[in-house]
DNA sequence: CAAATAGTGTCTCTAAGACAATATCAC
DNA sequence: GTGATATTGTCTTAGAGACACTATTTG
């Protein structure tokens, strides 16, 4: 057994204590991770001289094949194994259920309300991850995977109420949420209508979406949606899609300038002026850590 | 049993499944919360015409009375009970161990490395909380409580290395940390030398401190350190202490203006111009939620 | 050349930092 | 008045948003 951060050798008393200690003597909850995977998909409208115009933010859901909430749509996830960290668990689950290897994951909150799982006490650690459009397309064409992408429409109507609309190929889910308050920049959501989502997954989705928007605003996540080399216009569209805003190219370019590096390459054959391809700049602020 | 977010009645199959389901059949980790409590203490230098000059940021530690890490200093915390959320657990533990009822708590990360607790697999959910100077003084004078305040000195030397110095009444702990990388605005710390702190608590402390600084910069937490009514100078000193910077009063006042409301009251008897007392303004951004 | 997108220059406005000046108390 | 802190005014600078303009490709 490895001990982190010991400044001292273990003494005989401690040895004795530890060999007598039995975790099974105490109540323990189950622990899961849930991984909210986002992608930005561009319209497949390939008419000449017209780039993909409308991008859509999409989230990955799976239809549960087992009790509880059988046949309901749910966020991918699963139980923590005893030999992995929460981050490793999240990555394993998303790989197992979708075949996709995400670039990175970020924590999106812990959910520990007592009644959230009918099987008993289950603590969920939520993560948000980004899947590039390429990977998402590959995944979608793989029939072995029963996960589906749902377009996300997020609306806030007057009175503190949020509507989260998830549009799949043949299904539309519409969850209603309320804002119970703000705690240190994070909204605390409550479910008004789960809209058919399993467990408290409507709340987890809303929280993950809020995390994503925060990080997209500060350019922390928009790069992961695109290939290694990209045009600034594509990057701008990703941010616009996530934040649901419209930006002026001149201003976007000024703001993003410190985060990207030029390459020598250009796009071609699009019927208009070619665009220079850029690459993400590795700054001190983002020592990129792939899990 | 209460089910959150069901759009459907439970059917007979599900009933059957659930009554057959036994959590005990699966491996589960233990789950704890650790609560990093901060306060800002002013110098007790009460010389005439001189307000308290140097404020110090302090953190609450307890000396462990039990194995493992007996006699080591540790962050207050404990195991999750089956009838409480993580937030409730955090508040219960800090109350039990210090008698203090914090205004609010904020999540500061989850720690799930496999070797972090010699007793077995233990997942820690860290929280950061603020204790007002008044409460901290009351607590410190209560002999029943074995928790002690340590002044925090945080230093980053050249090469990615951080030194966390904790100065108590008779003890000084000095932990050394390395930055393994940045992940979405949060540093991932590793222990180089635990400096005598229990478990991986040096890492948790460093993470909590980083969370605190982030939130202090955006005025999200500085109010909790002070009584309901406060002078702007006191507020400024709190921020300066946490961020370890020096600010110009004029600029601080302009920035803080939107977050505070005047009262009719003034300080008096200080040997200089009285200061107006202010109160925190409740904005849309901070629907304050006391747990 | 026309259509379409890529990319630049610059004006305005706001907010932050620096710094100077004024205000008001206890003694 | 003196010493100390409170509070206000304003100059300068950096960055964001708006908008007009130029550039380069394919057909």
Structure description:
Two copies of one chain form a homodimer. With 291 residues, chain A is an alpha+beta fold. The first copy, chain A, has two domains: 30-215, Alpha-Beta Complex (Nucleoside Triphosphate Pyrophosphohydrolase), CATH 3.90.79.10; 222-290, Winged helix-like DNA-binding domain superfamily/Winged helix DNA-binding domain (Arc Repressor Mutant, subunit A, Orthogonal Bundle), CATH 1.10.10. The first copy, chain A, is 23% helix and 32% strand. Chain A has helices at 12-20, 86-98, 133-140, 201-217, 232-243, 249-256, and strands at residues 30-42, 55-63, 73-74, 77-79, 105-111, 122-130, 147-157, 161-167, 172-183, 186-193, 260-266, 276-280. In chain A, a hairpin with a 3-residue loop joins strand 7 (147-157) and strand 8 (161-167). Residues 1-7 and 287-291 of chain A have low confidence and may be disordered. The interface between A and B is large, with 80 and 80 residues. Chain A binds a DNA duplex (27 and 27 nucleotides) through helix 6.
């Amino acid at each position: 057994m490895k001990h982190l951060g010991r400044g001292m050798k273990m003494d005989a008393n401690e040895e004795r204590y530890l060999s007598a200690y039995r975790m099974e003597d105490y109540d323990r909850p189950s622990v899961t991770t849930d991984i909210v995977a986002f992608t930005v998909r561009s319209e497949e409208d390939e008419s000449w001289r017209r780039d993909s115009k409308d991008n859509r933010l999409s989230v990955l859901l799976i239809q549960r094949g087992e009790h509880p909430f059988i046949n309901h749509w749910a966020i991918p996830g699963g139980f923590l194994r005893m030999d992995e960290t929460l981050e490793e668990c999240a990555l394993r689950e998303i790989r197992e259920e979708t075949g996709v290897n995400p670039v990175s994951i970020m924590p999106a909150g812990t959910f520990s309300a007592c009644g959230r799982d009918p099987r008993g006490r289950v603590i969920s650690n939520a993560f948000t991850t980004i899947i590039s459009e390429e990977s998402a397309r590959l995944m979608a064409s793989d029939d072995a995977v029963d996960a589906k992408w749902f377009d996300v429409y997020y609306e806030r109507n007057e009175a503190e109420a949020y509507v989260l609309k998830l549009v799949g190929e043949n299904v539309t889910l519409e969850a209603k949420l309320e804002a119970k308050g703000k705690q240190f920049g994070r909204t605390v959501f409550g479910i008004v209508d789960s809209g058919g989502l399993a467990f408290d997954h409507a709340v987890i989705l809303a929280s993950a979406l809020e995390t994503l928007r925060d990080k997209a605003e500060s350019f922390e996540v928009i790069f992961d949606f695109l290939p290694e080399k990209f045009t600034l216009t594509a990057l701008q569209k990703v941010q616009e899609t996530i934040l649901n805003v419209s930006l002026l190219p001149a201003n976007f370019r000024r703001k993003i300038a410190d985060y990207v590096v030029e390459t020598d390459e250009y796009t071609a054959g699009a019927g208009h002026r070619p665009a220079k391809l850029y690459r993400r700049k590795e700054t001190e602020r983002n020592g990129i850590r792939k899990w």
